[in-house]
Hints:
Strand content: 35-45%
Radius of gyration: 19 Å
Low-confidence stretches: 305-314
Distance between the termini: 20 Å
Oligomer: single chain
Helix content: 25-40%
Shape: elongated
Number of helices: 8
Structural class: alpha+beta
Number of strands: 13
Amino acid sequence: MKHLFIVNPTAGGSDHTAAIExxxxxxxxxxxxxxxxxxxxxxxxxxxxxxxxxxxxxxLRVYACGGxxxxxxxxxxxxxxxxxSLAPLPTxxxxxxxxxxxxxxxxxxxxxxxxxxxxxxxxxxxxxxxMSANICSVGIDARIGTDxxxxxxxxxxxxxxxxxxxxxxxxxKGIATxxxxxxxxxxxxxxxxxxxxxxxxxxGGGFNPSRDARPDDSELDIFIVExxxxxxxxxxxxxxxxGRSDEIGRYIHHVKGRELTIELEREDVINxxxxxxxxxxxxMRLLPHxxxxxxxxxxHFFDSADRKxxxxxx
Length: 314
């Protein structure tokens, strides 16, 4: 079994390659397993490197050393490969996928715990051919989420503050978009503020639309927000961001299922785990157990009496 550490040198605002290599070297002292630290040089470079390695055959464990963007790149390379498992090893500014694990989120920073870890299969979202392990959204939320990085670079602005700044700017650019939406138990044609499909729970630096979405339950939590004005956005955003959508039922539809289709009059941005894609026809489809997630041996999120942990995806 080989261990491949994918390092994004721009994650977190500085190059952590040397520090990560020192950690890895120390962790593997006395271990008779091959390892490599690979420093990416361009967007989606991680996909090519992982695929080169998987072409050689054999079991592979990949560690995404960066933020949500790095993890998403690795997800797209590792999806549907039964001999490959993937773990986030956070070094970036955005780690929304790991936030889902609550007080246990920081266990993913413990390399020794990951090396002792086990593998659990999780679901993915296929959004127009790009894989997502966490959340996809369309509408004002997608524009806000994909703009947040440029505001987070401004001194004293970061995390949720960067998200709020992006929200304010995009609200004044225009809130609602013409959409034709088909989801389980829902069909709509008109102006909508946003559509959000949750495999995980957090995005945008800490917004939490779903309190109970799980990446291993074979269904998506889908939120469809009706057209609202600026005043109503200000009144509702706090409840939406804290998982209290049930308190704003007049304006939001919450459904569960495996497929979602959105038709737009013109191309708009899609938020895919914080990464941007543009399209006018958007198809989201859940892929059950499509990724082997490597978790620390100290993580208990997936433990339950009736859930059997397995060591490869279907």
